[in-house]
Amino acid sequence: MSLEKLEARITALEDIEAIKKLQRIYAYYVDSDDMRDEIVDLFSDSMESIEIADHGVYLGKEGVRKVFKEILGGKEPPPLSLHLVFNHQAVVDIDPGGQTAKGRWHGWMVGVRYIDEKPVQYWGHGIYENEYVKENGEWKFSKLHFNMTFRTPYEDGWLKTPVIGEYLGLDPTEPDMPPTAYHPYPSGYTVPYHWK
Questions:
Q1: Residue 33 above 80 pLDDT?
Q2: Which of 8, 104, 160, 191 could form a disulfide with 127 if both were Cys (CB 3.0 to 4.6 A apart)?
Q3: 180: buried, middle or exposed (CB in 10 Å: 19+, 13-18, 0-12)?
């Protein structure tokens, strides 16, 4: 293998690790109620959109601010609130040229959500299909899409109650577009893969 090919291979591996780290940092920041500005900074200034489950599609970096500072943040968390996100089974592919990439992840959640002003412990699952861009040598999100499979009370499970606390039409900030793919269990929907 030539030195040039070896250097390109090392750069690609370093880029993949940097994107994995970005995704993990995102999950840690989502877990915290006081890191909303830091979440916004993880996204490119020229980003396309963010879509999280049943919230809808929000365009550009201003859309990211709406999601994390107005919808999911911006208010005091209720007592007993908890939200933990785990990202795993990453498949990251660097596009030719090394300036853009795509990644697919399983997202698992455990937490406490208030339903009718009562705390409900839940667990959830979904698939991320995200796009990334390298800006000034640093990887950032250019498109984030989380398609939820279920968000269910711990006591019920997804067979009995696939989704609690639906947001469709209830978000305080109207989305720019409705969800492009919101098909929770038992729909059988498979989020399209970014690879062939």
A1: no
A2: 191
A3: exposed
In terms of pTM, does the model score above 0.85? Answer: yes
Enumerate residues 6+ apart whose C-beta is below 8 A from 116: none
Task: Report d(CA 94, CA 48) in Å as an integer.
Answer: 18
**b/e for 138-154, b at 16 or more Cβ within 10 A?**
ebbbbbbbbbbbbbbbe
Q: How far apart are CA 15 and CA 136, in angstroms?
A: 13
Structure tokens at 10: 């090392």
In the chain, where the domains are located: 3-153
One of 3.50.50.60, 3.40.309.10, 3.10.450.50, 3.40.630.30 is the CATH number of 3-153, namely 3.10.450.50
The pLDDT tens digits for 158-186 are 999 999 988 776 667 789 999 998 999 99
